Amino acid sequence: MAVLQAQGVGRRFGSRWVIRSLDMALEAGERVALLGPSGCGKTTLLNLLGGLDRPDEGMVLLEGEPLHRASPARLSVLRRTRLGTIFQFFHLIPTLTAEENIELPLRMLDWPEAAIRERCTALIRSVGLTHRATAWPAELSGGEMQRVAVARALAARPAVLLADEPTGNLDRSSGRAVLALLAELTEQEGSALVLVTHSEAAAGICHRVLRMEDGQFLAGPA
Amino acid sequence: MTWLSRRLVVRALLREWGRALLTLLTVALGVAVFLSIRLANRAAVASFEQFTQGVGQGSDLVLRAEAGPLREAQLPALRPLLAQGWMRPVIEGSFARKDTLEGFQLLGLDLVGLGAAAPEPAQDLGPAAPDGASRDRATLDFYGVIQDPQAVLISTALAAEGLAAGSVLEGFVQERPVRLRVAGVLPDAPSRPRIQRNLLVMDLPAAQRLLAREGELDRVEWGLRPGARLVDLEAQARRLLPPGLVLEPPEQRAESGRTMTAAFRFNLSILSLIALAVGAYLLFQAFDASVNQRRETWATLRALGQPPAALLRLVLGEAALLGGLGSLLGLGLGWLLAQGSVRAVSQTVNALYGASAARSAALHGEEAFFALLFGSLACLVAAWVPARRAARTPAVQLLAREGGPPPVATLRLGLAGGCALLGGVALAYGIRPAPGVAWQAYGGSLLVLAGGSLLAVALLPLLGLPGRSTRRWQLRLALRPLLRPTSRHGFAAAALAVAVGMTTGMGVMVQSFEHTVLTWIGSSLQADLYVAPIGSAGAASQHRLSAETADALAGDATVAAADRFQMLPITFRGRPTFLGAGDMAVQAARGGLILAAGGPFPAPLLALRQGGTEAPGVLASETFARHFGVRVGEVLDLPTPAGTRRVTVRGILADYGNERGSLILDRPVFLAWFQDARVASLALYLKPGQSAEAVAARLRLEHPGLQIRSNGALRQQVATIFHQTFAITYALEAIGLLVAVLGLAQGLTGLALARRGEVWSLRALGATQVDLARILLLEGLGVALAGLLAGLGLGLLLARILVDVLNPQVFGWTLAFRLPVGFLAMVALVTLGAAALALVPAARWGARLGADREVEEGA
């Protein structure tokens, strides 16, 4: 059974359809890349898949549950437990240290303190930032910030990880390191990944690549 | 206007009309609050001066007696002056309307002498008509006024209320019921201020008869004949001047009015300052938000090569445009607000000074200009800080999505604040200038305000400390930003601290004042009944009880003792003050005056009685003692109609009755020197077993022209007047507080805007809108708490300076400091409650902000 499914989804802004009648399905643990030029609708689709936006047509199902009909409260629960998000611009909370950023989703879920510590220590070790655990985001490099963002997104063991141009704001070597980390950790955690990118190289870590242009997949339903 | 400014300023304002409108309204509100207080202040002072000046305008010199009335018999000595000048004798009195008990100023003028109706104009009385009224025979029936001893001329404002020629005005003069006939209307002259509404003009002899003061005058106004020189007239007048008479410029009378209302005007001036501070703060918040919202535009311009100075010019140009338009809008709004506030001011002036005050505020040209200037300049100053910040910030930092204003150096600010606070206290308490001057107290207060507001910013990291250790993620996210507060946090906390501080300072001072006055009243008012003519109000009242009525009341079968109190204005050492007279034997036996110096009660009073006219003594009020630098044992030269008399100060009295101070003689001495047996008020001590209310009810029936109040009723009235005096203070402080809280909400929306990436991130992590709103709300409340705590602290310090230094120094009043815990708790609750109410919508807006923005930026 598909862990995440889009059926005939479309979204318009004003009278312009940014994406229209898209179908896609994502299996558990699968990594899929959405590849395409700027403005083709990748981020719009990602926002619909993550329940951050609602489609004007079609439906999105997360583990069989229709996201487009979920209440805001239910969406928040799903985002805390089943979805993880990584942004191009990191969006770390500047007033929390690196490890506090990572443990934030667990605190939102009221995990016991010991469990939070254990999980956080493991994740920070996984992303190689043990020595930077108490640093403020402003003290981290772009690559380090994105590694913290990856760890934070995976903290609550989501079923699906949505990554929007996670290397778009990084130099090539940091980008490569972050991609490798994404592949390794999603593999390790068993999370599926939707990776939005315009880089063929980045798409290379995925099992499947869906190419987009003008709001449509180029090779039919995926 | 350049191509760039047309597109980036005008077009941007038109496209983002919602933002432009909000800023315009903010500017308008700031200007309106400022203008309304200024207009109300001006209306109150103008009406008071109009009242005290009467028809004094147009004269060059004023002749009056130093003490007591000026007698017509003294005038022939000045006849040689008529070669150079004309004269206008004036008598003043009060009339209380029967149905409303409204007070009127009754003015007796020699209408024959004014020449309007005389077959041959009496040249020696000069050409000026009352208040510049033209000699309009159609309007002014001079013959009618002269022939009818009850005839009065009324103002156009009063005539507009339906009083036509022939109408009857029923009321009381002194304690006697009278019926006055309206004989005509005093026309307003275009070049002069409007004649005050509550002015009644009578022919001089008729007025003297009505006031039972035949042969007496209050003043004689002198004007120059064409070609004559004032210095010559003055020099000759001083040579001819009989003893006991003084010659003064007409401005001195207005000055005495200003002195009399000094405390009241001080109150309004403080409120103007609050309005100014609050208005400026609102403007700063509006422009800060405006600049912040367009940071990407500024960054792009910088990236395209626009120098910082050009950027600064663009932002300031926008500020000037919005400032000018908003100020114009604020003029109208301020005028409307002033109509409400002037009524409150008018009530107070009426209650305190018995002067009829303005009922509406005109949009004065000078004030309008100042308001426009204030609005425009304040906008430029308010825009300067964020504009300079935007101009100085590197483009890349402006464009960065996480970028917000940098944290402020709280430790440095805290140190500076502490120094300013200590410096303020040292300045206020360490220097003692001459009485009546208090620059050190004002300077000290300003430093305390500045220091307290800086400490509010320094308090933020302390309040953020729990955010470091708490495991509750919402609290952590809410309080962490306070650990490293930005200028937005700082400004919001500082502004709230100033508003709370001024409210607390004034509030605690007023409560201390009230407590002191009520204690004084409680001790001073020991009689069972207090009697005064209807219409009496304040020390300036002209109503008097006749000696016969006073004797009749004192001789009533139910009365055990009576204290006859008289009060009249005198000129002492060239300055206006009051001379009072009371029965020291009665006071010593039954009264309870509070003595600040001169020995325990009633020793100084008995010394006055024993001294009699042989070794005359006097009691000085505390305000008098401070104003004139007088001490117990000092010998004063007291002006009396019988010549100067030397009196020894036997004691200093606590007295909060008037600001000019007073000297009190024993009644027998006063009678011997002034030959005036009338009384301003009468205190009756009833025999045991008599019901004060029952006796009062009976006496009211027997003497319909008298106001007879029981002890309790009088105390109640004092308390009511006191509260009325400060009603406008409380109202405007509430506005100040409200505006500061609104500014706080505006600050929070700015913070949410700056943190929109963070908000969006939290939403993606699963935070609900309620979570986000709660975080933003808690952050705002943390800022509010810092402002509140610092404000309460600086407010208490300010109150101490007002009570310990400013009041004794300026007004001569010693007040007992009182810590009103209930009031402080109320300020805290109202501030936090209002902050929460204002912050909730801002927080909810901020919680929704992230998603919308990101969707727009996506695709």
TrEMBL record, chain A:
Q: Which SUPFAM superfamilies match?
A: P-loop containing nucleoside triphosphate hydrolases
**SMART domains hit by this protein:** AAA (SM00382)
Of the GO CC terms on this record, one is: membrane protein complex
Entry keywords, A to Z: ATP-binding, Nucleotide-binding, Transport
**Is Nucleotide-binding tagged as a keyword?**
yes
Domain ABC transporter as annotated: residue spans: 4-222
**Domain of life assignment:** Bacteria
**Listed GO molecular functions?**
ATP binding; ATP hydrolysis activity; transmembrane transporter activity
> Is rRNA-binding one of the keywords UniProt gives this record?
no
Return the PANTHER family for the record: IMPORT ATP-BINDING PROTEIN, TRANSPORTER, PUTATIVE-RELATED
The entry sums up its family as follows: Belongs to the ABC transporter superfamily. Macrolide exporter (TC 3.A.1.122) family.
The protein, known as: ATP-binding cassette domain-containing protein
Q: Which organism is it from?
A: Candidatus Geothrix skivensis
Automatic annotation (TrEMBL), chain B:
Which organism is the protein's source? Candidatus Geothrix skivensis
Membrane topology field: Multi-pass membrane protein
Q: Which Pfam families match?
A: FtsX, MacB_PCD
Q: Residues in domain MacB-like periplasmic core?
A: 492-700
What cellular component terms from Gene Ontology apply here?
A: plasma membrane
Location in the cell reads: Cell membrane
Q: Where is the ABC3 transporter permease C-terminal domain?
A: 270-394, 735-842
Query: What's the main place this protein lives?
Result: membrane
Residue intervals passing through the bilayer: 268-289, 310-338, 368-387, 408-429, 441-465, 490-510, 730-754, 775-803, 823-843
Whether Transcription regulation counts among this entry's keywords is: no
Superkingdom to which the source organism belongs: Bacteria
Tell me what this protein is called: FtsX-like permease family protein
* InterPro entries for the chain: ABC3_permease_C, MacB_PCD, Membrane_comp_ABC_pdt
Does the record bear Cytoplasm in its keywords?
Answer: no
Q: Write out the entry's keywords from A to Z.
A: Cell membrane, Membrane, Transmembrane, Transmembrane helix
